[in-house]
Amino acid sequence: MAVKAHVSNFEAMVAARARGGDLLAVPGCWDAFSARVAAEGGAAALSLSPRTVAMARYGRPDEDQVAFGEVVDLTRSIRESVDLPLIVDAQAGYGNALNVIRTVKLFERAGASAIDISDAVSPGSVQEGAGDVVVRPADMIGKLKAALDTRVDALIVVRTRAAAVEGLAAAFDRLEAYLEAGADLILVERAPDRTSAQRVAAHFAGRVPLIYDFGVGPEDDMTAAALEDLGYAMALSPLALLNAMSQAAPRALSSLAPPRRLRPIGVVKS
């Protein structure tokens, strides 16, 4: 199925949610096999994030060690394996607006249905220990316009790290500007508390589809039911499938062990 068809399917799912349908749960995958497991388990859409790949390939949630080319190759192999809408995390676009053009071209050619771009400073240009750092709004709008001008069919998803740096009001101002520039959806990273998630929903729900990302780390107090009540369209769970498979591993390994043998009782003599 072509990217255009996947995008149409994705938009239909979002429209169904807007009419009162169920929250769309989107598990994270990390290769073609995990994508097939999710698809056969009933997933309607999938996500691919460097943080999920980092945990699956390298055993730690250090997404900066996952190269751009790796994500492109994985997108292509997942697309060859399953026929579901696929949201791909493009981090900060892997550079400036010129880099974003290449990023969007290659991800869409590989089969991404939606491409998620953050206004964080690109990895490698942030001083270690500096914490969250965001680009100027004008720079992010330049990246966003480059993405929108480049994409053929794929949806462009935008997210901001500004809430942790500049406060929630400033984050809202940024997102309003990004929507005005043409972003298709908003991704909300793990909210620091339920109140923040509620404020985001009260401000944007009904105007633009909202995606909640449960992310990596300690569980927050948000649930799928709560997100559905607030008006979110979908929820990403990057590590749900990986965690489930990890928890099932001990049972699978125990089944490979030889059965306990009875101690020999010797020969009975008449």
Can you walk me through this structure?
This protein has about 270 residues and is an alpha/beta fold. It has one domain: TIM Barrel, CATH 3.20.20.60. Helix content is about 50%, strand content about 15%. The chain has eleven helices and eight strands. The chain has helices spanning about 5-20, 30-40, 50-60, 70-80, 95-110, 135-150, 160-165, 170-180, 195-205, 225-230, 240-255, and strands at about 25-30, 45-50, 85-90, 115-120, 155-160, 185-190, 210-215, 235. An eight-stranded parallel barrel has the order 1-2-3-4-5-6-7-8, surrounded by ten helices. Helix 2 (about 30-40) crosses helix 4 and helix 6 packs parallel to helix 8 (about 170-180). It is globular and about 65 Å long. The chain starts with a helix and ends in a 14-residue tail after the last helix.
- Give me the count of strands: 8
Shape: globular
Named CATH topology: TIM Barrel
- Distance linking N and C termini: 75 Å
Structural class: alpha/beta
Q: What is the CATH architecture assignment?
A: Alpha-Beta Barrel
CATH level 1 name: Alpha Beta
Tally of alpha and pi helices: 11
Proportion in β-strands: 5-15%
Strand order of the largest sheet: 1-2-3-4-5-6-7-8
